[in-house]
Design goal:
Elements: E1 2-10, H1 41-53, E2 56-60, H2 61-70, H3 80-87, E3 90-93, E4 105-108, H4 112-120, E5 126-130, H5 133-141, E6 147-153, E7 173-180, E8 186-192, H6 201-212
Parallel strand pairs: 1-5, 1-6, 2-3, 2-5, 3-4
Antiparallel strand pairs: 6-8, 7-8
């Protein structure tokens, strides 16, 4: 299966508490619900299509519990996201979750890299990761991500957990798709292609020299 990550972020990279004021107040976060006013029909349609094509889902524990509390309680809701989440396999990377209450859930508590590798080795399909910032960072660090989708909202939140840390592994990306919605959400789809190439100091000096001569 192809492993894809789908994340809504602000322009300054914040992904915490995007849906509601009380969704996630960890770390003293007080600016929840920042994405909701910017979500338009085109963005919703795109997300519905993403969920509909999923064959399975992989979560970190915090996002799993948020989703289980909301979408898991709406199993009979005629909604594309609810239908996908409540009918397809769900995997949770956690060493503390022992009795998941959401149906069709498997806890990955041992060698997570090996377990994810086995899922990726299955023929065809798509394994999606929504939210789960810590898990996404770990997956990227272990070169397990095949495709990254970012929905960048036109807002600077100014606090909260960011998708990418201040220091961490680098990655070169190929842009697969880019478009924007009426309210200004930019949808960007990337494929990791290894490490970036960096210019040498000599090349930088030549570049400057060309512009001043």
């Amino acid at each position: 299966m192809k492993l894809t990550t789908i994340t809504m972020v602000s322009v300054d990279g914040v992904m915490q508490g995007l849906g509601a004021p009380d969704e996630d107040r960890s770390g003293g976060f007080e600016r929840g619900g920042w994405a909701t006013p910017l979500f338009d029909n085109e963005a919703a349609t795109f997300l519905h299509q993403v969920y509909e094509r999923a064959d399975a889902f992989l979560f970190g524990r915090r996002t799993y519990e948020i989703f289980a509390g909301y979408w898991g309680a709406r199993a009979d809701l005629p909604h594309p996201i609810a239908a996908a989440l409540n009918t397809r396999p769900k995997y949770v990377a956690s060493t503390t979750l022992t009795e998941p209450r959401w149906a069709n859930t498997t806890v990955l508590s041992g060698d997570v890299a090996a377990a994810v590798g086995e899922l990726k080795a299955k023929q065809g399909g798509e394994l999606q990761v929504h939210g789960s910032g810590g898990l996404i960072r770990w997956l990227l660090d272990n070169q397990l991500v095949d495709e990254i989708t970012l929905l960048v909202c036109p807002v600077v939140v100014g606090q909260g957990t960011r998708l990418f840390p201040d220091t961490g592994p680098d990655a070169a990306l190929d842009l697969v798709e880019s478009r924007s919605t009426p309210k200004g959400i930019t949808i960007q789809v990337y494929r990791p292609t290894g490490r970036p190439q960096y210019e040498t100091a000599t090349a930088d000096l030549k570049h400057v020299a060309r512009h001043v001569s």
